[in-house]
Write a structure and sequence with these properties.
Elements: H1 5-14, H2 18-23, H3 25-28, H4 31-43, E1 47-51, H5 57-62, E2 68-73, H6 76-88, E3 94-98, E4 111-117, H7 126-136, E5 137-149, H8 154-167, H9 177-186, E6 195-201, H10 203-209, H11 214-225, H12 229-234, E7 243-252
Parallel strand pairs: 1-2, 1-4, 2-3, 4-5
Antiparallel strand pairs: 5-7, 6-7
Bound molecules: S-adenosylmethionine.
Length: 253
């Protein structure tokens, strides 16, 4: 269930966009999905959990190799879309459950495998969510975390968070890879070295997917036009506002 005003905001932001997230080419592809699938194939978990499943793309990589895959999200609309898509894909072992990562409605050590992808930057409390992920993972289980990450440079960090917040007012933070590693250790995980990748975001579909207000689109474009040259170069800023940012996938025991 939704537990606070921020999470109500996230749910309201994502619910109407459920179909767009199932269809999103950015979310439906990527080397990180291959990494998640390969890990699940190697481990063949009896019970797996996808936290903040969104359109279900991470979970759909795991389900063919798992006994059961629980797709978990704040948004009921998102979960309805995931259930329908799982049916279309013939994934009969996908079950859905609604709630917040801050308080998982599962008994401790009840999963062999936990995945979360492109969700944690929306979490109200990253540490609480990671502690819950750790609690429900059995001893010796494996987790894999994928998300956008911020560069360590304060300048690049501020520029990225600013346009992210304008695009999606429910955005909380893209953490750096070092912050991710520290947070995972604090939660009791043993993280491996992160795999860093770059992801291009095509501007028009990026804002359409989040139904970004026209006023905010103009503000993003204004910020982009004022970006120092080195910032624009780092994010490979294109004439139409498309840009490329950093992502990270990190496996943990
Ligand atoms: C960008 S989508 C996730 C994409 C998806 N995991 C994929 O691989 O394509 C982000 C999702 O995280 C969910 N979410 C955000 N905060 C959450 C929280 N605190 N608890 C559960 N789900 C959350 C949102 O409702 C949304 O569906």
């Amino acid at each position: 269930m939704t537990t606070n005003a921020h999470e109500a905001h996230v749910s309201a932001q994502f619910g109407p966009q459920a179909a767009a997230y199932v269809a999103s080419a950015v979310h439906a592809s990527g080397e990180d999905l291959g990494q998640i699938a390969a890990l699940a194939q190697a481990l063949r978990p009896a019970r797996a959990l996808d936290l903040g499943c969104g359109g279900g793309h991470a979970g759909f990589q795991v389900a063919p190799h798992a006994g059961e895959l629980v797709a978990y999200d704040l948004s009921a609309d998102m979960l309805h879309a995931v259930a329908a898509e799982a049916g279309r894909r013939g994934l009969s072992n996908v079950v859905t459950q609604q709630g917040s990562v801050s308080a998982l409605p599962f008994t401790s050590a009840s999963f062999d495998f936990v995945v979360t992808r492109f969700s944690a930057h929306h979490w109200h409390d990253l540490d609480a969510g990671l502690c819950e992920a750790r609690r429900v993972l059995r001893s010796g289980g494996t987790a894999i975390f994928a998300d956008a990450v911020s560069p360590a440079s304060p300048l690049l960090n501020t520029q990225l968070q600013s346009i992210e917040l304008l695009r999606d007012p429910s955005h909380v933070r893209n953490y750096t890879a070092a912050e991710w590693t520290a947070a995972l250790k604090n939660a009791g995980f043993e993280p491996r070295t992160p795999t860093l990748r770059r992801l291009r975001l095509e501007f028009a579909s990026w804002v359409a997917r989040m139904a970004t207000l026209e006023l905010h689109i103009q503000a993003i474009r204004s910020l982009q036009s004022a970006m120092p040259r080195d910032v624009a170069d780092y994010f490979a800023l294109e004439a139409d506002g498309s840009f490329t940012f950093d992502t990270m996938t990190i496996e943990a025991q």
